[in-house]
Amino acid sequence: MTSTDVTTPALDLSHIDLHYGYVRALADIDFHVMPGEVVGLLGDNGAGKSTLLKVMSGAHRPSEGTIRVHGKEVSFHSPSDASEAGIQMVYQDLALVDAQDISTNLNIGREILRKGPLGWLGFVDTKAMRKRAESELDRLGVRTAPMTRPTEMLSGGQRQVVAVARSAIRVSGDANGVLLLDEPTAALGYEQTKLVEGLIRRMADQGIAIVIVTHNLPLCHEVADRVVILNRGRKVADVPMRGTDPDHIVGWITGARPSMFEDRAS
Predict the structure, then answer these.
(1) Is 124 within 8 Å of 81 (Cβ atoms)?
(2) Could you give the residue range(s) of every CATH 3.40.50.300 domain in the chain?
(3) Helix (H, G, I), strand (E, B) or coil at 9
(4) Pairing between strand 72-74 and 64-69?
(5) What is the pLDDT of residues 24-67, one digit of tens each?
(6) Which DSSP string do the residues of 163-209 spell out, in sequence order?
(7) What is the pLDDT of residue 3?
(8) Cα separation of 35 and 237, whole Å?
(9) CATH T-level assignment (fold) for domain 11-98+155-254
(10) Would residue 49 be called left, alpha or beta, if left means φ above 0 and alpha means ψ between -120 and 50 degrees?
(11) DSSP assigned state of 113
(12) Entry pTM
């Protein structure tokens, strides 16, 4: 975790409810992540992890509750609203353009236009974008393939790193934002997983708040400072990763262990 003394959460959700008709998908959820903190969001299938992540990213609007970003109350009507507030989501499908090179993928949506008439016509400055991409990856401590290599030629781990780095670049800066990762190591091998783990910790060390939805408990042991566990749409545990018995975590996930909290949502 970053050494900066920060007392205001980068993202703070309070009393979040979400209804799909008569179905209560999320019930009175409190959740926060501090700048430079990695929080693992755990739970069995159907526990509400992805639904809560979609609330954070602006894809779903909560039926009730409050969302604050760096202490300021916000209302997200779309993912673009969350992005403008400094929240970036990396989905399992990565959303990379396979036929384009690494530099182009890193610069999607913030292309540098060429100077003069060619820029007026929409021609991009590929050399300038490549130089900026290399500088940004150096700052993140990322070493991937050459910037000119198409992403379809990268390994699974390299593709994941490019997708995560692209979002990390957008939330870096003076007011570090929030990075949401949905199963970032799914279908990756050991070495590729280690590559992603290293990037996650380096981003946290630079002050970025990170939330990881995963079924991979070893990943949480490696990178998470804290874990929040959901069961049937309710928060049942919020504990530091280090020093917590793994059997207790599994018990909260499966429902064999009682919730840490009084059930306010019943």
Answers:
(1) no
(2) 11-98+155-254
(3) coil
(4) antiparallel
(5) 899 999 999 999 999 999 999 889 998 999 999 999 999 999 99
(6) HHHHHHHHH-SSS--EEEEESTTTT--HHHHHHHHHHHHHHHHTT-E
(7) 41
(8) 21
(9) Rossmann fold (3.40.50)
(10) alpha
(11) B
(12) 0.85
